[in-house]
Amino acid sequence: MNKDRPYIIKLENREKYLYALVSGKTLTSEIAKMYWDEIAEMCCTLKKSKIMIEKDFVKSVSPPEMLEMGVYLGKILSGKKIAFLDQYKNESINELGKVIARNKGVIMRIFKNTEDAEKWLIGG
């Protein structure tokens, strides 16, 4: 982590999609906006419409923060296809985010492993 951002992000241009690994101690909606902005900017630069993101935050967000994040994703990534993995398996809160983002035009699915995520992401 550097002084400017309270998380670590690794972005890789994979052949058919953008891969992002984001990690840190505590996730907030403001932190999520920061890293999603970086991801959206890279998608635009690389002309990618598919994203695989692995999230590795020890402490996740509250339901109101997830609502805010889902709405924000719809603003910046509507129409994009996102495969989402959470190393801490915060399934119920992630499911809430998925439903909100989908309602805002994001094509999103949650996965337990990268193999299944990649099959779905590049399969169509």
What does this structure look like?
The protein is α/β, with parallel strands linked by helices and 124 residues long. It has a single domain, classed as Transcription Regulator spoIIAA (2-Layer Sandwich), CATH 3.30.750.24. Helix content is 44%, strand content 29%. It is built from four helices and five strands; from the N terminus they run ββαβαβαβα. The protein has a five-stranded mixed β-sheet, sandwiched between helices. α1 runs parallel beside α2. The longest helix is centred in the N-terminal third of the chain and has 18 residues. The termini are far apart.
Based on CA atoms alone, the radius of gyration comes out at 13 Å
How is the largest sheet built, in terms of strand order?
1-2-3-4-5
Beta-strand portion reads 25-35%
Task: Find the CATH superfamily.
Answer: STAS domain
What is the CATH architecture assignment? 2-Layer Sandwich
Structural class: alpha/beta
| Count of discrete alpha- or pi-helical segments spanning 4 or more residues | 4
Oligomer status = single chain
CATH class: Alpha Beta
**N-to-C series of helices and strands:** EEHEHEHEH
Q: Share of helix among residues?
A: 40-55%
Large-scale geometry = globular
CATH topology: Transcription Regulator spoIIAA
What is the mean predicted local confidence, pLDDT? 93
Low-confidence parts, pLDDT < 50 over ≥5 residues?
none
- What count of domains describes the coordinates? 1
